[in-house]
Fold this protein.
Amino acid sequence: MATEVILQVGDKEFWADKTREQWNAMKPLLRDQLEYVKEIVPEFKIASAVTHLDEDSPHMHVVGVPVATGYKRGLSKQVAKTKVFDQERLEKIQDLMHDFVEHQMIDHPEIFGDETLKPKEKGRNSDFSKEFYLRLKQQEYEKLEDKCQEKETQIEALDGTAKEMKEDIESTVNQYVDSVVNTEMKKEFMRYATLENPKTTLGKLVSKAFRTFKEWWDKTKKPEVAEKAKTSILQKLRESQAIVDQRKEQQVPNLNRNNQRPER
């Protein structure tokens, strides 16, 4: 249904020592080549054209649909790679592209210097060889595999973070539940403890234990706690009164100064 064409000038060795600026300078030249392909092969309906600068050399992947006309059977217009790109047409296209690229190289010595294109070679006027195409796809596959591995690593990291968050949430929920349960337990205990006439065995047990505890508390701990609380509150009251007295003393001199001002 579609055909891929790769536009490329120069091999890995040629581009190995070129600067990033020279690589980037190829982008408009590749776009011009694409427009020329549209001009000389109008039957090739281009659907996608993507420039790659991340491999051995700058190049453009062009994907399109070769459409032929004049069919007597079926549709008069059909997808037909072998009819649009037959051997004779491929030779003509390569001749035209060869001349076009030669002029580009002459016009851009900042990229190509004094390099020239090799003469056309016999047997090189057709599609890429199966071996070349497989090698190209293998390189793309390896890059995709690396990207997949990177994404898997990121996903594993996210999974670890999500697991930690889940554990933190579960811990917080458990702490809250324990707090609520303990509070309700204390309320229930005090309800049993303060019953005047408990009916159940548990109520009688808790009520008796609480009365025993309260008697001990009133005799032993209560006076000590009450004295500490009283001392603390009296100390705070004395400190507050001292602050009030100090502010009053600071205000009196100001009032005296205001009363001693001479009349005009």
